Amino acid sequence: MEPPTTPGEKGRPNRAERVALTDPHVRALRPRATAFDVWDAQQRGLLVRVLPSGRIEFAIRYRIGGSRRRLKLGCYPAVSLKAARSRARSAQSAIDNGKDPAAERQAAKTAPADTVKALADDYLKKHARKFKRSAAEDERLLEADVLPTWGPRSVRSLTRRDVRLLLDRVVDRGSPIMANRLLAVVRKMLNFAVDHDWIEANPAARVAKPAREVSRERVLTDEEIRRIWRVLEHAPTTAERPAPGRKGAKGPANDPICPVSPGLAAALKIRLLTAQRGGETIRMKWADVDLDAGWWEIPGTDTKNGEPHRVPLVARAQAIIRAQQKEKKEEKEESEFVFVGRGASLLDRAKKAPAAIARVLTVDFRGHDLRRTAATRMAAAGIPRDHIAKVLNHVEGGARATRVYDRHTYADEKRMALEAWDRALTAILTKQPKTGAAVVPIRRRQPR
Question: Same topology for domains 5-110 and 116-195, yes or no?
């Protein structure tokens, strides 16, 4: 393509120059009465425009869809000739692939800066990832349900009706409880927006939860405890492990193979023995465990209430944790965490493990049932409620001053409570079913 003509200093049309530009050449360019272009013979489409003011600009000129476009690449000498050629090559590559970089730049300039997408990024960076252990779940909910609908919108345009419509879509797909979780995240993000001057008021402030939630009261029966413990003990043998590309054996219906990894199975047993939360158990670190003394120190950064918590480890729990050292050597894992899997931490898979157990046993079972069951069985064994609360690391009620000045650790009381529960669990696991069937030995199956 021939370079366009431009008026000369005296108004005569002169053809634009085309030369192999060099830095001395660019520096030597002098302004005229009207702007003029000098084309680079080395880089396709690159030109230097000299304005009457003396300003020197790099640009690339191209055609797309029959229309002529001009994309500015920066001013000389802030942008060197070398950098301008590099930018021109990148732009020309995009043009060759059917893109219109000048139009994209213009669209970016006109797009609102206060989009929900920008707010979500700011919220995750400055708040969620710094202060919330559930930051990954917040990000997942925003990516799945908020940004596809609200992403390019201005935060200031959101209304209460927008919030309700967003929640209604989640309810309509059959996930009312998830809609409650989504509302909590959206409300928190918009509170962040108010605190950081994105908006003046939170449109989700008084929006009611879409679904009524009832606290689960499920306590596992003796038979369910036996069945769950048995499946956690039933690790697959070498012959039962799946070959590459094949499904593994499931085992008989009355004695199914454990569907989760040995690390997850061990973590579930520790949850039942210690009555601790799932996230706290999965985050157990070797540095926090003293197996000789029988204690597990949970730092405040890992607890729900932010308070450090000292958990007694009964002999059965100590043995399970020690076994993880052997698992770690066999899998050649290098991790600070006690419960590890093949190649990765179990944090991302732990939440799905109870559902996998429930499927193979066809029982109504969730991970938190282990904690509730342990607490209920401790109460049945005569343990005082306030001692159970200490085991569970619940924040007690009453006067705040009393909590501040009462520095008793309740170490002996917590150990007595968990030892009583361990004795009760032993009785449950060794009790013969009422049907008269033979007792299934509770031991780990050895590889063949």
Answer: no
Instruction: Tell which residue, 99, 104, 144, 101, has the closest CA to residue 120.
Output: 144
Closest by CA to 261, choosing from 203, 328, 191, 161, is 328
Q: Which CATH class is domain 222-430?
A: mainly alpha
Listed in sequence order, the DSSP H helices in 256-350 are: 262-274, 278-282, 315-331
pTM here is 0.59
Tell me: the pLDDT tens digits for 277-292? 998 999 999 999 999 9
Please answer whether residues 417 and 391 qualify as being in contact, where contact means their C-beta atoms are separated by less than 8 angstroms: yes
Rounded Cα gap, residues 271 and 209, in angstroms: 31
Tell me if the domain spanning 5-110 has CATH number 3.90.650.10.
no
| Residue 66, CA atoms < 13 Å, CB-side half-sphere | 0
Banded model confidence at residue 307, pLDDT cuts 50, 70, 90: confident
Distance CA 87, CA 72 (A): 10
Q: Rounded to an integer, what distance in angstroms lies between the CA atom of residue 226 and that of residue 229? A: 5
Tell me the β-bridge partners of 290: 295
* Peptide bond between residue 384 and the one before it cis (omega within 30 degrees of 0): no
The residue ranges of every structural domain in the chain are 5-110, 116-195, 222-430
Superfamily name and number for 116-195: Tyrosine recombinase, N-terminal domain (1.10.150.130)
* Residue predicted with more confidence, 46 or 110: 46
